[in-house]
Specification:
This protein has 186 residues and is mainly α. It contains 9 helices and no strands. It has 2 domains: 88 residues, Orthogonal Bundle (Rna Polymerase Sigma Factor, Chain: A); 81 residues, Winged helix-like DNA-binding domain superfamily/Winged helix DNA-binding domain (Arc Repressor Mutant, subunit A), CATH 1.10.10.10. 72% of the residues lie in helices and 0% in strands.
Length: 186
């Protein structure tokens, strides 16, 4: 049996130390995952807390089948999707004109281009791209987490690379911030 199994058994019995240990173990990864989806630290913090709250509310029904990180990431993904769905209905962004003239904005603009590129990916590819490139998960872990085969993960990682490269090339962004003619691949 793994450590998660024993932690969950202790949590089901009301052991606060086990709860603390569990949260310390998974909080950073879940927070980073939410932040990659939402791009707002405060909202990502709220969604991370919501994820753990939902997990603890369902712990009585939870049946441990290996690592529980997959269950946590699924809860976090659903929380992020719900948040984005609600935000899309209300969202109107205005960038102040002075921000466009700021030379320090080139780094922010590059970051925004990368974020927009990731956001433009089809959902099933975006999910794998976030886990692989930003969470640093191995392909086998992703396959286990999403309950898909490793070859499909490999295909989607390769597809994400190709689509991101194409998107960023079309945005005239090249490595090291150089302008490109739209042909150079990243």
């Amino acid at each position: 049996m793994d450590q998660d199994f024993f932690l969950i058994q202790k949590m089901k019995k009301g052991d606060e130390t086990a709860v603390e240990k569990f949260v310390r173990k998974y909080y950073p990864g879940i927070f980073q995952y939410c932040l990659l989806h939402i791009r707002d630290r405060d909202e990502a913090e709220d969604l991370t807390q919501e994820t753990f709250l939902k997990f603890f509310q369902s712990i009585g029904r939870y049946q441990h089948r290996g690592r529980c990180s997959g269950f946590l990431y699924t809860i976090a993904l659903n929380a992020c999707r719900d948040y984005c769905r609600k935000a899309r209905e209300q969202y109107m962004e205005e960038v102040p004109e002075t921000a466009r003239e700021d030379p320090a904005m080139s780094t922010a603009e590059l970051r925004m281009d990368v974020e927009n590129a990731v956001e433009s990916l089809p959902e099933e590819i975006r999910e794998i791209a976030l886990l692989f490139f930003f969470q640093g998960m191995k392909q086998r872990e992703i396959a286990r987490l999403l309950d898909i085969k490793v070859p499909l993960v490999k295909y989607r990682v390769a597809r994400a690379k190709k689509l991101l490269s194409s998107y960023l090339a079309d945005s005239d962004i090249a490595p090291e911030g150089r302008e490109s003619g739209g042909k150079e691949e990243i």
